Amino acid sequence: MYTILVCDDEKDIAAAIRIYLQTEGYQVLEAHSGRQALELMAEERVDLVLMDIMMPEMDGLAAVREIRKSSNVPVIFLTAKGEDEDKIAGLNEGADDYITKPFFPAELCARVRSQMRRYLELGGAPREEATLRVGGIMLDTSSRSVTLDGDPVNLTPLEYNILKLLMESPGKVFSSKDIYQAVWRDEPYGASATVAVHIRHLREKLEVDPANPRHLKVLWGHGYKMEGDEG
Q: Is the peptide bond preceding residue 105 cis, with omega within 30 degrees of 0?
């Protein structure tokens, strides 16, 4: 799953874009200033940035100047109608494209797909591994299959997606909210209980002793993580 950072100080616009992109299957991070966007990029892997230009603290142009010092991630500027000088300035700072507000959701998603495809074809982004392995658990993304010590394990689609999310970032702690938003792609109402049930089912299928798991660990009050045998 690829991650897109949406940065716009108008929270309603950022939330609407998040919904459009989640429908397309992307994971979405939100920021409301250039400074906040840089802080998120320092903590999370981001595959594409949608950046408004006029924002408080640090505007989009300054933020992209900083991004380009260390990353060639695709950047699409969000500009207001008639801001031709800003569009040119954005491209000069290293942006890959721009889209003018107001825009149709289909146009936005098409621009994102185009830039992501170009980025991947040019080898700029890390491709997802076909096989993920933690201890004796192996997940094949091409066949969507899971084995435990070589034996097939039958998972539901939700269980598979939770496991894949955790196995893609071993050692990283995901809160129930993180997991729910990434897998269900919905607002995380009641996320804690729902996710806990699915984690319990995964432990029953993948752990020798589900009550004392070796790999699917819980950090009380924080969330869940995947650990290898050395963890």
A: no
Report if residue 231 sits inside a domain: no
Residue 184 CB partners (closer than 8 Å, separation 6+): 158, 194
Distance CA 188, CA 225 (A): 18
pLDDT in tens, 124-162: 655 555 789 998 999 998 788 999 999 999 988 889 999
> In 57-104, which ranges are continuous DSSP H helix?
60-67, 84-93
Tell me the two tokens of residue 105.
Answer: 């959701």
What's the pLDDT score for residue 231? 47
Give SS3 for 63.
helix
Those residues whose C-beta lies under 8 Å from the C-beta of residue 149, and which sit 6 or more positions away, are 136
What is the rounded distance in angstroms from the CA atom of residue 128 to the CA atom of residue 1? 8
| pLDDT score at 82 | 62
Q: Cα separation of 105 and 43, whole Å? A: 28
Q: For position 77, which CATH number holds?
A: 3.40.50.2300
Residue 164's Cα: distance from chain center in Å? 13
Q: Are residues 102 and 195 in the same domain?
A: no
Two structure tokens written together for 164: 């894949």
